[in-house]
Each structure stands twice: as structure tokens, then as C-alpha cells.
Amino acid sequence: MKVMLVDDSKTMRSIQRNILIQLGYKEIEEACDGQDALSKVSAFAPELLLVDWNMPNMDGVTFVRNYRALGGKSPVIMVTTESEKSRVVEAIKAGVNNYVVKPFTPDVLSQRINETLSRTKAA
Amino acid sequence: MDAQSITAFVASTHQVFSTMLSLTVTAGKPYSCSTVPLFESEVSGIIGMSGDVQGMVVLSFPTATACNVIRAFTGADMDPSSPDFADAVGELVNMISGAAKAKFECTNVSISCPSVVLGRGHRVAQPSDATCITIPFACSAGQFSVEVAMKLAKSAAVPTSTSAAKAA
After folding, report:
1. CB atoms within 10 A of CB A115
2. Count of alpha carbons within 13 Å of A87, Cβ hemisphere only?
3. Nearest-CA neighbor of B141 among B28, B64, B32, B86?
4. By CA distance, what is B83's nearest residue in A?
5. What is the pTM for the complete model shown?
6. Which of B10, B24, B160, B166 is the most exposed place for a label (fewest CB within 10 A)?
7. What does DSSP say about strands B109-111 and B43-51: parallel, antiparallel, or unpaired?
8. DSSP alpha helices (H): ranges in chain A?
9. Looking at the predicted structure, is the pLDDT value of residue B153 above 60?
10. Domains in chain B: how many in total?
């Protein structure tokens, strides 16, 4: 499965990449902000995206809106420090499928990924 | 700044260090930022807050502590002058600030992308009209501090810390 990590922090992308590798995911692409991600989604065609909210140039929610508007159908998990209910609702309205609040443990990220992929298969 | 706001930052720092670094931190007694600090700041991660609450959060370390903390966070030894080291410090202050602001349920607060300052004995100037408190912490990696300067915007409701409210 192809997974795209979108986060302006290289450290956070590296942490997420290591967790994904442990879970058996091998095809992983990284993007440092929403703009970078938009420029890579067509060529990479991710089947799952993990997206941060606060990023320079283009934030995560704007990216998700653009990705959906362009016809992107793959599930998106928002991985962010933004945990207020109003933010979660805004993200879901933009097209986010699931939500992980930083800081997170590998188990939580793994659980959300499995949950999201199961829901997508069932739909 | 009220006790609930300080509690929110103590809780968020504890949460970030225990979850992401497997380090248990102990908070000391908070003191005014105008007091002589307990250690010389050599590495600082800075986040701005805007919206209903305006101000700044500064996570400061001596270099040796910062190196220990970043090793626990990333699993790698890093040169403090490398961009990856600054990136990791920035991500830590981002998570601490984000988790703390989430406890202010009555407020609409945005946080900026982080900046990182390196240099012996530097001092981050805080807004003069904001209350500024330094919260000292200690853990097995060494001592560090979280400096919080904040004021309520004129139109904002008083922030309420969820955790403090639950504890009361």
C-alpha cells in the first residue's frame, strides 16, 4: 500500500515513517506542506494519507479540500496538535476520514490506520 | 496569568515528554520571567499564540539537555547546529503549545509555526503587556523550562482549563 506523509517537520515524518515500516508499509512518499503534497499526489497516487494541519505555504485542511476537489478519494488521517471539537468538525467537513492528536503513541497511530482502512473497505 | 493556564502547560509538557520521549518530567515552582533564570538558555523553541489569547511559548534548554532530549525524541544523536536538530526542537514546542491550548475550551487560539534560536545565554524578549511565567522542569535528560507569556484579547472569554476544572 502506498502512503503519503504530509508534515512540515522532518522529525515527525521520520517518526511516522518508522511506525509505518514496522507495520509493514514500504511504499512511503513524503511532502513538507500542502503545496508540495498537491504536486506529488498525481504521480504517487497514495492509497492513504497522513496529514498535519499547521504547515507553511498550504495548511493540511486546505490541502485536503483541494485534494478532494481534484477527485482524490483515498482516506486521509489528520495527525495534528489541533484537538478542539470545532477543529475536528472543520477537518471532517473538509474531507478528513480520521483524526490522531499529537502527541501520540505508535499503538494509537496503528489503531487509527487499521480503523480507517477497515471503514474504507467496508464502504 | 491564572493557575489554570499554568496547569495546562505543566500537563501538556508532561504529556508530550511521557508519550513521545518516554521521559517523566517534574515541574518546579513557576516564577516570573523577570527573575534570574535557573540556567542559561542555549537552545530555545518558540511558538506564537494569536486569537483570543495572544502571546508566546518558549521551550528552553542548556545544550547538553537539549541533546539528551532530542536523542530520546528521535532516537539519534544530532549536531545542535544541524537543521534536523532545530526541526525536532520546533516540533516539541509545537506539541506542548498545541496540547496546552486545547485545554482552553472557551477560547479560539491559533499557534504559529515554530522558530528555534541557538546561542549561549540568549534571551527571548516577551511582549511587555503580557504576563510572563517561567515553569522549570527536570527529568533524567536534565533541566529545562517552558516560558509562557500571554494576555487575553479584549473580546475574548476567560480561558478555562478542562483538566483544572476536572481536578477541582
Report:
1. 14
2. 24
3. B64
4. A10
5. 0.90
6. B166
7. antiparallel
8. 10-22, 34-44, 60-69, 85-94, 106-122
9. yes
10. 1
Query: CB-CB: which of B19, B88, B99 is closest to A11?
Result: B88
CA distance A60 to A66: 10
A103 to B99: CB separation less than 8 angstroms, yes or no: yes
Here the cell at position B44 is: 530555545
Is the preceding peptide bond at A106 cis, omega within 30 degrees of 0?
Answer: no
Closest in B87, B99, B111 to A54, CB measured: B111
Indicate the SS3 state at residue B61. strand
> pLDDT band at residue B165, thresholds of 50, 70 and 90?
very low
Residues 80-99 of A with CB under 8 A from B: 80-84, 86
In angstroms, the CA A23 to CA A110 distance is 7
d(CA B12, CA B72) in angstroms, rounded, equals 17
Does residue B11 lie within any of the structural domains?
yes
Calpha distance A54→A64 (Å, rounded): 13
CATH of the domain at B81: 3.40.1550.10
- B149 domain-assigned: yes
**Three-class secondary structure of residue B103 per DSSP:** coil
Cα gap B5→A34, rounded to integer Å: 32
Residue B107 placed within a domain: yes
Please state, in angstroms and rounded to a whole number, the distance separating the CA atoms of residues B12 and B150. Answer: 16
In contact, B106 and B160? CB cutoff 8 Å = yes
DSSP letter string over A72-99?
A: --S-EEEEES---HHHHHHHHHHT--EE
Query: Is residue B162 a part of any domain in this protein?
Result: no
ipTM for the whole complex: 0.90
Q: Which domains does chain A have, with CATH numbers?
A: 2-114 (3.40.50.2300)
Higher pLDDT pick, A70 / B167: A70
Q: Do A83 and B111 touch (CB under 8 A)?
A: no
